[in-house]
Write a structure and sequence with these properties.
It is a single chain. Helices cover 72% and strands 0% of the residues. By secondary structure, the protein is mainly α. The chain has one domain: Arp2/3 complex 21 kDa subunit ARPC3 (Orthogonal Bundle), CATH 1.10.1760.20. Helix 1 packs across helix 2, helix 3 runs antiparallel to helix 4 and helix 4 runs antiparallel to helix 6. The chain starts with a helix and ends with a helix.
């Protein structure tokens, strides 16, 4: 990668780290897992930055939250968040952004495939986050699904639609 492009991608990565962190402050408490914009911005990072820079972005975001900057949902931070009810969702951002970025890049960054990529990314977040939630609270599968997926389906669908629209508008500018 040439130097100017690497600098440009570094700036975009830093911008997405800041956006994901800001998305955590827009949190609606809803049981143990709040509604946040973080997941939309994580998936959008995969679409815009691609798999490698997207993972770097999310990795930096998680790292700054782990060391104490208040970038997790509701302005929280610390390693305890990874062992709490939302830890699985946070960890799931890494494979979700990677897979989303791979699918988007492979299919020429088309809005239909971007949407499919973000749906798959969301499923990855659920697939890791819900079992983690179940384990932390010793919940039944029915209860874990009831508090960890069902309340978020419509909102996540709307966030995916918004992110697909944003990606289509942002790409030509980058």
């Amino acid at each position: 990668m040439d130097h100017p492009n690497q600098l440009k991608m570094t700036v975009y990565t830093a911008l997405f780290v800041a956006l994901i962190a800001m998305g955590a402050f827009i949190a609606i408490p809803l049981g143990p897992v709040p509604i946040v914009l973080q997941n939309m911005l994580v998936l959008l990072a995969g679409i815009i930055l691609g798999p490698v820079w997207g993972v770097g972005c999310v990795g930096i975001y998680l790292l700054i939250g782990l060391v104490g900057l208040p970038v997790f949902a509701g302005g929280t931070s610390g390693i305890g968040k990874l062992f709490g009810p939302t830890g699985g969702y946070l960890i799931a951002y890494l494979p979700a952004v990677f897979v989303t970025g791979i699918i988007s890049n492979k299919f020429k960054k088309n809005i239909l495939f971007d949407t499919i990529a973000m749906i798959i990314g969301t499923l990855i977040i659920y697939a890791i986050g819900v079992p983690w939630l179940k384990m932390v609270f010793s919940l039944s599968w029915n209860k874990a699904l009831a508090v960890g997926i069902y309340p978020f389906l419509i909102g996540d669908g709307l966030k995916i639609a918004a992110a697909a629209f944003l990606a289509k508008k942002i790409r030509p500018l980058i």
